[in-house]
What we know:
The protein is α+β, with helices and mostly antiparallel strands. It has 2 domains: 3-91, Phosphorylase Kinase, domain 1, CATH 3.30.200; 98-295, Aminoglycoside phosphotransferase (APH), C-terminal lobe (Aminoglycoside 3'-phosphotransferase, Chain: A, domain 2), CATH 3.90.1200.10. The protein is built from 9 helices and 13 strands. It has helices spanning 3-12, 58-68, 118-132, 152-166, 171-182, 230-250, 259-267, 270-281, 284-295; strands at 23-25, 31-37, 43-49, 81-82, 87-90, 95-96, 98-101, 106-109, 145-146, 192-194, 203-205, 211-214, 221-223. The chain has a 5-stranded antiparallel β-sheet, with helices on one face. A 3-stranded antiparallel β-sheet has the order 6-11-12. The longest helix is centred in the last third of the chain and has 21 residues, at 230-250. The model has no long low-confidence stretch (mean pLDDT 95). GO terms for molecular function: transferase activity. This is Phosphotransferase enzyme family protein.
Amino acid sequence: MNTRNVTQLASRNGLDILEETIKINESGVDFRVAHANDYNGDKWILRLPRRRESMRHAIQEKKALEIIQHHVNFQVPDWSIFSDEIIAYKQLKGVPAATIDVEQQGYIWSFDETNVPVKFHQSLGKAIAELHALPKREFENIGVEMVGATELRASMKQRMERVKEQYDVNPILWERWQAWLAEDSFWPTHVGVKHGDLHPGHILIDQNNLVTGFIDWTEVGIADVSVDFMSHHLLFGDEGLKKVLDAYDNAGGRTWPRMAEHIVELLTTSGITVAEYAQVSGLKDMQEIAAQMLASE
């Protein structure tokens, strides 16, 4: 898709943008993202689905965003244009904590990732605590994922067994999963509203490295809120996880003694998530990545 295609697609949906301002980001698996200015100088974000399946959660995501924006102090997208072929909203304040370099297959950071600013950890923990405390009842009838606290382990067990039917799972990894499932103390006794895909590319920050908003809410739902810390642990290790969890706890986030350990174990199931996405999308390269992840310890 080129800039002319994007201009025409936007125009069909009631948005007139300047073609020369369009910058297309190809890093997303489900969506291309285009940045563009309209004739009034307003900046827009255009999410362009790569395939039909990319829009499978779009209606639920839109309804969730309409609820969230009435409750939180951080920014979330306000979809003013929504159709089968485009989602568009005015650009939020701030910049992503990092963007994905498609060629290098890595992040380009907005701060020194080897010396993460204290304000980033603190404001991120506070924003996540605010998200997880949202009233769950308002999300019950909009079609998002709903998993109760007593269902968390059964749901995870089912996902494990399903993936084992389709892939070779490393025996050591499988035994680790079973030990985790069997130990009560690892698991939360509550659920909450989760973003579901909270990595640096979806976290907006200001010039002082304070978190100002979250974007790309495709996986929003009611479930184990621990998933929103997985990327942070993957990128910043045990020390980074402790810092953001301390900030989360100080902001009123609900924790339990083995929460950090549970997040570490949850991260080992990333191969399941990739396998599930591979099945939905039909992407062969995702199937290969899932197979590699599940074959490892």
